[in-house]
Design a protein that fits this description.
2 helices; 7-stranded antiparallel beta sheet; alpha+beta; globular
Length: 127
């Protein structure tokens, strides 16, 4: 049996929803604003996928199945450039190649929720 849980931040509070739907995940990721809402995490048993940042300014996405290897969504771009985003309530400079779009973040999260896998249409890099 798969246990699915969705968590997100609201300021300093964390909210949790058991058995989320794809619409729940999509809505929470679309609400990321880089200020009060900066992180959404989808849990499937011991694995999880996290999306942080701002739906308008850029998002970082990773997933892990064992908390040892972390798979990061990567995109084309200048590998020397960085983007400052607030993820998990903390500002950080992320490589521009790790900052993706709202559409790709939603694809990654919904595929992970529904199938427990990395979205095959996206590029992933093990960290």
């Amino acid at each position: 049996m798969t246990t699915n849980i969705l968590t997100w931040d609201e300021g300093y509070d964390e909210r949790e929803l058991h058995s989320p739907t794809p619409d729940d995940v999509t809505g929470r990721i679309a609400a990321l604003d880089g200020v009060d809402h900066t992180l959404v995490t989808v849990y499937r048993n011991d694995a999880h996928l996290a999306v942080g940042g701002s739906a308008n300014e850029g998002l970082v996405v990773y997933c892990t199945f064992d908390s040892e290897v972390f798979w990061q969504v990567v995109v084309d771009g200048d590998p020397g450039a960085s983007v400052t985003l607030v993820a998990g309530g903390q500002a950080g400079a992320y490589p521009a190649t790790h900052v993706t779009t709202l559409g790709d973040a939603i694809t990654a999260a919904v595929d992970f929720l529904e199938r427990g896998e990395r979205a095959p249409g996206l590029h992933w890099d093990a960290q």
